[in-house]
Each structure stands twice: as structure tokens, then as C-alpha cells.
Amino acid sequence: MNKSRHIHKAVIAAAGIGSRMLPATKAIPKEMLTIVDRPVIQHIVEELVASGITDILFVTSPGKETIAEHFSSAPELEESLSASGKIALRDAIRDVATLANFSFMLQTGPYGNGTPVLCAESFVGDDPFIYVWPDDLVLSRDPFTKNLIARYEATGCPVIGVDEVPYEEVHRYGVVDLDDETGAIRRVVEKPTRAEAPSNLVQFGRMVLTRPIVDILKETELGKGNELWLTDAIATHVARGERFLAERIPDGKWLTTGDPLNNLKAVVEHALDDPRVSGEFRSYLLTRLQHD
Prior knowledge:
single chain; alpha/beta; Spore Coat Polysaccharide Biosynthesis Protein SpsA, Chain A; seven-stranded mixed sheet; two-stranded antiparallel ribbon; 11 helices
């Protein structure tokens, strides 16, 4: 692996139906649900761009055309905003379409979070790339994806973001057994029971993947729920004696948005972090809680 190879591509897996957020996701893709004034997917794209990513592929499914529309130019809307003197809003709309070079493709193949990686093979080629799950936000001082890229450039190894969850929640995630001295994954288990879990440290949707992982996925059999799991490919990579690293968030927090409660938590965390609304919103929360 060429350790100096620059990472400029990212793949966003955006084909899921968002069943935990129904009925909202019946008509609106879960990636387009709003966190303050921007959809979840825009927060993710902005993190990627701030980390040096220039080319982004969305692997989607039918009914998610609004994602492409959101990241496309809107001349009529821009003209209307200009005519109304709303220049800042016009510029905000215009800027979204120029954040990166965007590509879109429909997912084909079995269900599972490994399938978008295979769909993206022609896009990524032999290059290392960022792979993102659209439910996951990282609220941090510096873009977390930038940390992952720096770790890859220093080691030449694939790397994934990890964070701790309560043991009662490990059955929802891929759980890792980590060598704390080296930061290398010793093993990983997809959706274990609490008794099976090697720890409460779970992987989330920020990672650097390399060509060997793509090749392993091609030969990986369907796993739990008859799905193609990236976790199984990582486990094979590690079992072959190759290093796959884990990176904790040094200065922030992982926020998952895929269910109602965690979506609300993400909105609150971002609102409290946004200087445009944080002051008044904090006052509202304090007043509201005092009257409970």
C-alpha cells in the first residue's frame, strides 16, 4: 500500500429505507431529515469537504431523487432569492451545489452495508477512500474524517471510527476487541448479544477503506439476516494477519440519527453548538425544564 496516496474520494451509503423513522421517511429520504437548518446528508458532506474530499458518490435507491436535487444547482430559486434581495440565502443555496464533484448511482445486489462498497468499485478503483453511513454525524472541533485520513497516511492501514455505548445497546452494532496499545482491531463481531460482545466499543459510519477490503467483500458470504456485512470483511482482513485500525473521537461526540430519540438528541446537540441559535435555544430549554 502506498502510504502517501492522497484520499480525495468518498462513498456515502444512502440506499436504506429508514424504517425506524417512518412515517416521516415514507416521502422524505432519511438522509434529508433536518438537523437545525440543513439535512443530515449536508452536514456529512460538509465534514468530508472540510477534510479534503473532492469527489463524492452517493449509492442510493429509487425514491431518493431529492438527494441529487439538493446537491444540484437551482437557477430559478437563486433568481427568485436575488430578486427578493435575499442574497445570503441565494449564496447558501448556490454553495451547496459546488461543495464537491457529486455522482449518483442506484444500489444493486444483496441488502447490507457492504453492498454499496461493491457498487462503488468502478468509482474508487484501486484508491483508498472514505466510506460513510448516512445515519452518523460527528460533532467535533476538527472534522473527524480528517483524523481518519491522517491516521491512514501515517500507517497505510484502513481505519474505522469507534465509540463506546452502554452494554445494553451492543446488539445494534459491530463490536470491536481493540488492542489499546497499537489501536489495531483484534476481532470484530456483528450485532452480538451482551454475553457475546468482546467490549462495548462499537464501530460507526466513518472509515478509510482500501482495495483489499473491496476484494474481500467480493468473496464474503451473506451473514446475519442474509445481508452482506462490512464487519465480516473486516473480520476476514484481521484474521489474515492484516492490520485494521480503530480511531476514537478526540474532541467531540458521535451522534446517530436513525431513530426518533437519537435524531432529537442530534438536533439538540447541533442547536446548542450553533452560534446562530444556541443562546436563545439554551434559554428556552432551561425555561422549559424549570416548568416541568
